Amino acid sequence: MSWIENTDLNTGVLWNIVDFDIFIHDNRPMYIYLILFVLCPCANASRMKLIAGHVIFRHGDRTPLASYPSNPIKEKSWPNGYGHLTSIGIEQQYRLGQYLRIRYGSILSTTFDPREIFVRSTDFDRTLMSAESNLHGLYHQRNISNNRTSVQPIPIHTERAANDVLLGQNYCPIVNRITSEAYQSETFKQLNEFYQPFFEKLQMWTNASNITLYNTQHIPDSVLVAHIHNKAPAWATEDVRKTLAEINNIIFYFSFVNDTVKRIRGGPVIQDVWSNMNRSVHHDTFYKLRMYSAHDTTVSAALAFLRIHYPFQPQVTPTKLTTTRSILFLIF
Q: Is 296 an active-site residue?
């Protein structure tokens, strides 16, 4: 299993995914061989064979989700309005699809085969369009269904948000209660008090009221996204943006600090991955690649469930060069 954040230096495109690979060794699909192979580079790599992959990724770059009172950039100034995929986001996902073709080209046919790949998305335009853009990159110049057209439709499965347990979009009173309790902890209160002077300045800049860690009113998102598109206000200096990013990270950390929340929000998608892994190693019918197009909360929940300590908001666009980090994923 890998957590991948990798920036293309030529385009500034950042890939932000969690992926899971299954290998077999000597025709024996035992995870222990993966560990021995990783720990012992002298192992016979030619006898290792990739048989299945699973990818969970956040949608590409999008417009802000909301605004603030003093913001001169109104919703009509953003292509397609708030919360939609941008041209940058389309390119990000297309290039991610190209990367996945390189990574999984050994197990996928060059043309689309519905028996090989299954794509699941949340029911949001930006995630559905991200999945579609990704698939264009994955099957670039190979998506020809017949001699009369150059189009190969590929199904993207989804579920209404209210019912989407798999990718963690459904309403859950237990999660809401536990999250509220986390926000009432002494640590959270101390952090809120620490940032209070900054919030007072933020209220002056934005004309918003009652800004706290409990209620940031989408201001960090609005400002950070505007900066990416060269539309940030003059007061949004590098130091201000850094503080806003810190605030986002704190909120994400406390959103998944509880084990019950990790299980409810991250457990279903990991269970889905595990089920397909089981089928693949026992030679049952399985998909060679399962893709999940979702949100920062989905990626964070999956990492939190696996107890991988990455308590920050997964990004869709780069603020700095990051490197690929491989992490062992062991299931007994």
A: yes
